[in-house]
Design goal:
Chain lengths: 410, 151
């Protein structure tokens, strides 16, 4: 069991702030998360005490920055169970997925090859593939989702052909919050020799990540969705795959030497993918975030989110003005609408009650094909949310009438 | 300006009424109408505005689409305000409306019932909703003017 009240003291954003005149309830954790003091202090420490560029200086400050930056690779390696040499620092999940699409996909796909994705994917795991397909003549196909909107191994089995070269899917989807059976999905894809790309943007902070056990080929996540700073993330790739890939950006930091005749000798994996001065404080902050989350404990986090979800679902069970699209969801994400009220109107009203939720298509613009509505309200719980937060959301939904939605403008 | 348009309870009713029973809310196939398809990325509104502009006069204007309360009501009010007006008159109304939504000074008398939307100026994230239909009209007027320049 988590001691949520103690945990909340670690987060300056949870120190009793008001929003629209009400105590803030933050339920937009799938968009981004709050940062604990441990992360803020780690970043401040870099700014206050050892600002310098890594990998360039022969002086003590730079070496200190180097050590701090490099040590995060080991922390990430421990967190996701891989070798630190398989950890590429990126600008976030989007950047990581693009590296896979352009560095791996563009070089390895040919006309007629198939890329499998799902209709529940975030734009960042769709659009790079659309573009790579267009450039290579590969074909995008969609793995069927079941009637709840879940990706199942059986559906992947059905979709696989010898032509499938890439299978890309989210470990946890960002609207419905279903947990995919990543291990089984990777096993099936590998039977056909396809490469698997796991979008872990919504999973890394909420369920245990084990790339060895999953046996995925690539995996990407963002720091800001797991209590770390924004602008930084991680791409994991199996060492042999990363070694065989050409980088997608070139510049300082990633090369060992180059000559005027055009010869370039790149550094080894993972440095060869990290051109330019990286987000040093971001990486250092990510390290602090992973440490923090590990201390809280991933099992505790998953269990608390699930408890909040169950409590909330129970609370609204007899409300007849709400429709939930993922009543059997696995994580703290609830996708719903208030009946007969446009999602944005309802979300504005809920916001006016001090509760942060998000409305729209949440960048999953193909999902309407599955759930039948183009826009939903998404509430996403995290480990620092309380049962009172769930009560507040339930109360706001109960009082969400069209008159009240309009009332916020007067 | 009518005293009634200063009463928040009345304004709220007006807004609700324009949302539940929007005016000029039916598209036409008539080729004399030009159409602007407006969909915003930040919000989910997706509406079509049609106008028949002849000799600098907005003879008719209509709209339809998926839209929230604010975009539906604001577009409905817009159609009432500009129907039968000259382009010059419509532009003046439009400028006053945008001024109101931006929180700048405006002439209430020009906007009639649309003053019900004044509160949107304090909700930055809904300003797009309150202007999407108006921007559709703006586009149609610009197109009509361009066409006439070409003549
Ligand atoms: C499933 C999923 N994939 C990818 C992303 C992209 O993450 P970022 O914007 O941090 O690059 C998100 C963010 O919302 C997401 O939810």
């Amino acid at each position: 069991m988590l001691d949520v009240n103690t945990i909340r003291k670690d987060f300056p954003m949870l120190d009793g702030k008001l929003m629209s005149g009400h105590p803030l309830v933050y339920l937009d954790n799938s968009a981004t998360t709050f940062k604990p003091n441990a992360v803020i202090n780690a970043i401040n420490d870099f700014y206050h005490n050892y600002t310098s560029n890594i990998h360039r200086g022969e002086y003590e400050l730079s070496q200190k920055a180097d050590t701090a930056y490099d040590s995060v690779r080991k922390i990430v390696g421990g967190f996701i169970n891989c070798d630190e040499k398989e950890v590429v620092f990126t600008a976030g999940a989007t950047n990581g997925l693009n590296i896979v699409a352009y560095s791996y996909g563009l070089a390895n796909l040919k006309a007629g090859d198939e890329i499998l994705i799902t209709l529940a994917e975030h734009a960042s795991n769709v659009l790079p593939w659309f573009d790579v397909a267009k450039k290579t003549g590969a074909v995008i196909r969609y793995i069927d989702l079941d009637e709840e909107g879940r990706l199942t191994p059986a559906a992947l089995e059905k979709a696989m052909t010898e032509k499938v070269r890439i299978v890309a899917f989210a470990a946890v989807t960002n609207v419905l919050g279903y947990i995919a059976d990543v291990k089984e999905l990777c096993r099936i894809a590998h039977e056909y020799g396809a490469v698997t790309v796991v979008d872990a943007a919504q999973s890394a902070a909420h369920i245990h990540t084990d790339v060895k056990d999953w046996d995925c080929d690539f995996m990407a996540f963002s720091s800001h969705k797991m209590c770390g700073p924004s602008g930084v993330g991680v791409l994991y790739g199996k060492k042999a795959l990363l070694d065989a890939m050409e980088p997608f950006t070139y510049g300082g930091g990633s090369n060992a030497r180059f000559e005027k005749d055009g010869t370039v000798i790149l550094k080894e994996t993972p440095e060869k993918f990290e051109s330019g001065t990286p987000d040093m404080e971001g990486v250092i902050g990510l390290g602090a975030a992973l440490r923090y989350i590990s201390e809280v404990g991933m099992e505790n986090i998953s269990a608390h989110e699930k408890a909040l979800r169950d409590y909330f679902m129970n609370k609204i069970a007899d409300y007849d003005n709400v429709e939930v699209y993922n009543p059997n969801g696995d994580t703290g994400i609830i996708a719903f609408n208030v009946k007969n009220i446009f999602a944005q109107d309802a979300a504005s009203y809920i916001g006016s009650q001090g509760i942060a939720v998000r409305s729209g298509n949440h960048c999953a613009k193909l999902l309407h094909n599955v759930i039948g509505v183009t826009e939903t309200i998404r509430a996403s719980f995290y480990f620092y949310n309380t049962f009172e937060d769930a009560d507040r959301l339930a109360e706001a939904i109960k009082t969400c009438t069209i008159e009240n939605c309009i009332g916020i403008f007067f | 300006m009518s005293e009634l348009l200063k009463d928040p309870m009345v304004l709220r009713e007006i807004l609700l009424d324009h949302y539940e029973y929007p005016h000029n809310h039916k598209l036409t196939d008539n080729p004399a109408f030009k159409e602007a398809h407006m969909s915003s990325e930040s919000c989910i509104d997706d509406i079509r505005v049609q106008a028949k502009i002849t000799d600098g006069i907005i003879e008719d204007v209509r709209f339809d689409g998926r839209a929230c309360t604010i975009s539906t009501a604001s577009t409905s009010m817009m159609t009432d305000l500009v129907k039968g007006k000259t382009i010059a008159e419509a532009k003046e109304i439009m400028n006053n409306y945008f001024a109101m939504i931006d929180g700048r000074e405006f002439d209430e008398n020009m906007l009639e019932e649309a003053v019900a939307l004044q509160g949107v100026s304090k909700q930055a994230n809904r300003i797009k909703c309150a202007t999407i239909g108006w921007h559709g009209l703006e586009k149609l007027i610009a197109e009509s003017e361009e066409e006439n320049d070409g003549k």
